[in-house]
Amino acid sequence: MVLGIYPGCSLKGSSREYTESVLAVAKAFDIEIKEILDWNCCGATAAHNLSKELALALPARILALAENQGLDEIVVPCAACYSRLSGTQHELNQHPELKSKVVEAIGMEYKGTVGILNIVQMIDKYITPNIESKIVKPFDHKLACYYGCLLVRPKEVLKFDREEDPQSMDTLMSKLGAKPIDWAFKTECCGAGLTMSRTKTVARLSGEIVKDAADRGAEAIIVACPMCHSNLDMRRKEINEYNDQKINIPVLYTTQAIGLAIGLDRESLGLQRHFVKVEI
């Protein structure tokens, strides 16, 4: 089968290892991934603060490109990008007059028919049904599944998982042989795009997340968002300073955990690129 992908800015730069693991896992399950050609930034996280029309036009152009390139369904691994694309499609489908303005702005035909999946939805739909037969080394670790504040919100648009206590990643990790913990921080904000402008705020918010996971005995934190990964992994020095203790639990993407369980090479999953060394 063929599935389109919108990588967004992060997956081409700071979260290159996320792309590597997505492609490696997709290949292992015979999923052909086609990148949307000529894609642009979706506008996260600032465009909607400046101009509503621009904030809608940027994702709409991406979706129009996918339609014009014959892609019926696309996966959007970044939770922020997914939120912008799915939210735009929902709003334009609800408001024809606004849709007309946006179509005029992008200068392209836009129907609003492309299926949009976040990474967990894609895994649930195309990988989970066959995953147990491919496991060669159960991922037997105690894990904290961290969804962040965007992956399953807003509920009325995404219609996926529970808003306050989501379970999709927990279920997936259990199928890999892991033991997800019950904890209070799975949907708390990590600080998102404030990592450069307000690093101390990110250290505080992410520090509380990392500490709670560690205090509950987690051996790793599992994420599905490049921004969350950057804040929890790259900002570990600031996090440790905030907590006044050194916490070494690594942060892995869902696809990296899957890759390890089905026996993929660690380098093909980009594990060597992490700031906090992955030793599990």
Low-confidence stretches: none
Reading off the top of the CATH hierarchy, the class of the largest domain is best stated as Alpha Beta
Alpha-beta content class: alpha/beta
Helix content: 40-55%
Based on CA inertia axes, which overall geometry fits?
A: globular
Biggest sheet strand line-up: 2-1-3-4
Into how many domains do the coordinates divide? 2
CATH topology tier name of the largest domain? Rossmann fold
Distance between the termini: 32 Å
Our count of helices gives 13
Number of strands: 8
**C-alpha-based Rg, rounded:** 18 Å
Mean pLDDT: 94
Largest sheet: 4 strands, parallel
- The string of secondary-structure elements, in order, is EHEHHEHHEHHEHHEHEHHEH
Report the sheet-strand fraction.
5-15%
Which architecture of the largest domain would the CATH scheme give at its second level?
3-Layer(aba) Sandwich
Describe this structure in a few short sentences.
This protein is an alpha/beta fold.
Q: Keywords for this structure?
A:
Glutathione S-transferase Yfyf (Class Pi), Chain A, domain 2; Rossmann fold; 4-stranded parallel β-sheet; 13 helices; 10% strand
Can you tell me about this structure?
By secondary structure, this protein is an alpha/beta fold. The protein folds into two domains: 2-120, Glutathione S-transferase Yfyf (Class Pi), Chain A, domain 2, CATH 1.20.1050; 135-273, Rossmann fold (3-Layer(aba) Sandwich), CATH 3.40.50. It is 45% helix and 10% strand. The protein is built from 13 helices and eight strands. It has helices at 16-28, 47-50, 52-68, 79-94, 96-106, 119-126, 128-131, 155-158, 168-175, 199-215, 226-234, 236-243, 254-261; strands spanning 2-5, 32-35, 73-76, 115-118, 142-145, 179-180, 220-223, 251-253. The strands form two sheets. It has a four-stranded parallel β-sheet. The longest helix is centred in the first third of the chain and has 17 residues, at 52-68. The two termini are 32 Å apart. The model has no long low-confidence stretch (mean pLDDT 94).
